[in-house]
């Protein structure tokens, strides 16, 4: 982890990122602006009346190759900080917690056949559920990109 921290801080100091260095074969975990992040490593993209939820690049990187995803049915509901599914990788099985409460309006069915989308595209094709938030103010308690980046660096340093 010390090497990862050094590499991450060096990349930040040199202003390197996946966006500026697309030729790099593996870049550091990406954190996108415009999303909200939970300390359990889920992200939320709130657009209009729907919020899309998935796990972060940082989380998928630590999990390794995802081989199975267990997701809820559409029309169920989720509660903030409560599990709604699980991700199984070659390393471990991890629960997925909802960063907000609401009604599930869509589930990414592609993940049942291609769970690796979580690894290859955690913020785009690897999204997990779409929710109609029941309490949109819960989004305010989540971290922005800078806060989440700092959170991950501190978490990695403590391991």
Walk me through what this model shows.
By secondary structure, this protein is of the alpha+beta class. The protein is built from 5 helices and 9 strands; from the N terminus they run H-E-E-E-H-E-E-E-E-E-H-H-E-H. A 6-stranded antiparallel beta sheet has the order 1-2-3-9-8-5. A hairpin with a 2-residue loop joins strand 2 and strand 3 (about 50-55). The longest helix has 13 residues, at about 145-155. The chain is globular and about 35 Å long. The termini are close together.
Question: What's the helix and strand layout?
Answer:
Elements: H1 2-13, E1 36-37, E2 42-47, E3 50-55, H2 57-63, E4 66-70, E5 77-78, E6 83-89, E7 93-97, E8 102-107, H3 110-113, H4 117-120, E9 129-133, H5 145-157
Antiparallel strand pairs: 1-2, 2-3, 3-9, 4-6, 5-8, 6-7, 8-9
Features:
9 strands, 159 residues, globular, 5 helices, alpha+beta
Short note summarizing the structure:
The chain has 159 residues and is of the alpha+beta class. It contains five helices and nine strands.
Structural class: alpha+beta
| Strand order in the largest sheet | 1-2-3-9-8-5
Helix content: 25-40%
Shape: globular
Number of strands: 9
The low-pLDDT segments are 1-27
**End-to-end CA span:** 7 Å
Q: What series of H and E elements makes up the topology? A: HEEEHEEEEEHHEH
Rounded mean pLDDT score: 85
Strand content: 25-35%
Radius of gyration: 16 Å
**Structure annotation, total helices:** 5
Largest sheet: 6 strands, antiparallel
